[in-house]
Amino acid sequence: MCGIVGYIGEQQAYPVLIKGLHRLEYRGYDSAGIALINPEGTLSVNKAKGKVAALEALCADKDITGTIGIAHTRWATHGEPNTTNAHPHYSQSKNLALVHNGIIENYKSLRAEMENHGLSFCSDTDTEVLVQLVEYMQVSHECDLYTAVQLALKNVVGAYAIAILDRRNPDQIICARKGSPLIIGIGKDENGKAEFFLGSDATPIIEYTDKVVYLQDEEIAIMDRIGRMDITNLANVKQTPQIHTLQMNLDQLEKGGFPHFMLKEIWEQPNALRTCIRGRLNVVEKDVLLSGIIDHKERFINANRIIICACGTSWHSALIGKYFIEEATQIPVEVEYASEFRYRNPVIHSDDVVIAVSQSGETADTLAAIQLAKSHGAFCYGICNVIGSSIARATDSGTYLHVGPEIGVASTKAFTGQVITLALLGLAIAKEKKTLDEQMFHMLVDELQQIPDKMQWTLEHNKHIDQFAQIFTYAKNFIYLGRGYNYPVALEGALKLKEISYIHAEGYPAAEMKHGPIALIDEEMPVVVIAPKRGIYEKVVSNIQEVKSRKGKIISVVTEGDTTVKEMSDYCFEIPDTRDCFVPLLAVIPLQLLSYYVAVAKGRNVDQPRNLAKSVTVE
Ligand code: G6P
């Protein structure tokens, strides 16, 4: 949610910043801007409404020289997306320029206070208030920029990641964070000269260096041109930065010949899941090893209850995780929307295990839910994809998905990575608690191992979906139905379609259909039914009948070779047979492809759907 990039060194900053903005565009893309200090000491700010490409076009005939700069791609929270509200924002004197990710909650009262002191504002944003406040502190306390930033941040309520330039000091960038992520890359250019990079995540940095520092909450960093970096906290206590090595490579951030990141990530799933289970699933010894639980076995064995907190797609995988973990471990599992959980005074016991599921590891509500759970003494476990992310660091232990960076805004490989990781967790706990008999445990281990190959088969077998996606572009609504493990898949299929094609879609437990949604069914309504020949198959067949007799169009996901449902369907996608609990890992594939191709047929921007952002770092 908003992307920040920064650079100070000997290279020209503009190309580094623009490339970085492109890499961060998945976080927001309603406007973009860049601030540079040129060799003559001018602080220029250029901003454009729309995507980063619009900013590039604007800058084509501008002075873009300078070896220090900050840049921003925005997802609007305060003030509509236009050029005035785009970042960077100048201070009153135009000596300072600032970019910001997050929300300053008390910006209205701060603004009123400064207006009383004669300052004027040109935008509707909380960010302009912040940069004005910094300057106000600088002037009123006659202090340096660093002290002014510290004083200003002590007065703000809310979340922020900021980077700030001062025209009068072209050898220094100051940045700070609280609640929104910020990473500092420590590099050396080809002449061995020190340089620093800033990013909301590692994607704009990895091309130049793999050495990074994750700024912690309430820390302020000064980076200067001669390679010095000082970090202190708001209380002015010097901090010792921990330097981490990134485990990511550049290829993972490119489209690799695919027209969209989303399609690339859909096809990456078999390999991504192989990496996810590597070293964790041992088919020879029929074992599951999750290093995250080794030192905390007792917390899981003695857990009275597991609560899983998540948002969006991660909430859907959490629901599948609940079904599996409860069945395998006999521990009651609750799944909560993090945004509800954090504000509703939930009962949390110290013997609860609270699991956060989050691709980005930065979702503000999920992070807050974990902080709440920790304050009640619960043991907190993180299931994240982004290494070193805030949730990964805030939890007591956890497991990374290791599915590689996910760039497409609509989550695909992270979803299946989360489902399989939750299955591994369920198996690992079941092994400790001995809640599954040995034969069943071995069978599940063997079956899980085969999932990536079965996924590959599913992808190859359903490539043709592109040929008839066009048919559904007329539809204004879709219904997705599933039962048991496939109810969350129905939710996920519907969400994927909504997100990228803007067609309204509802996911429902198939049997609930007759309590409402059945009223919507007519010959115009496509109904996607997940109907594998497992579990309560016969019941799902009856639900299909109910739709058919009201002339709904049936699109089914069936087990390979099943002719009964195929004959009842207008369109049918096959998946290989697998255990009930693992069907979601295969059944979601045709639904991902369907939403992708319908969105493409409707001419949508699949990787950057309107109004959405991949990482929601504001509540
Ligand atoms: C946003 C994204 C979704 C994602 C959700 C939760 O809404 O667009 O794809 O599922 O946030 O994100 P997380 O990173 O916590 O999984």
Give your account of this protein's structure:
The protein has 619 residues and is of the alpha/beta class. It folds into three domains: 3-253, 4-Layer Sandwich (Glutamine Phosphoribosylpyrophosphate, subunit 1, domain 1); 261-460, Rossmann fold (3-Layer(aba) Sandwich), CATH 3.40.50.10490; 465-601, Glucose-6-phosphate isomerase like protein, domain 1 (Rossmann fold), CATH 3.40.50. The protein contains 20 helices and 27 strands. An eight-stranded antiparallel beta sheet has the order 3-2-4-1-10-9-11-15, covered by helices on one side. Strands 5-6-7-8-12-13-14 form a seven-stranded antiparallel beta sheet. A five-stranded parallel beta sheet has the order 19-18-20-21-22, sandwiched between helices. A hairpin with a 5-residue loop joins β9 (183-188) and β10 (194-199). α7 runs antiparallel to α15 and α14 runs antiparallel to α15 (438-461). The longest helix is centred in the C-terminal third of the chain and has 24 residues, at 438-461. It is globular, with a radius of gyration of 25 Å. 6-O-phosphono-alpha-D-glucopyranose binds at residues 311-314, 358-360, 363, 366, 409, 411, 612, 614-616.
CATH domain class name of the largest domain = Alpha Beta
Category from helices, strands and their pairing: alpha/beta
Q: Describe the biggest sheet?
A: 8 strands, antiparallel
- Cα end-to-end separation: 11 Å
Count of discrete domains: 3
Instruction: Based on the coordinates given, report the CATH architecture of the largest domain.
Output: 4-Layer Sandwich
How many helices?
20
Can you tell me the CATH topology of the largest domain?
Glutamine Phosphoribosylpyrophosphate, subunit 1, domain 1
Classify the oligomer. Answer: single chain
Q: Cofactors and ligands present?
A: 6-O-phosphono-alpha-D-glucopyranose
Number of strands: 27
Average pLDDT value?
A: 94
Residues in β-strands, percent: 15-25%
Rg of Cα set: 25 Å
Low-confidence stretches: none
Helix content: 25-40%
Shape: globular
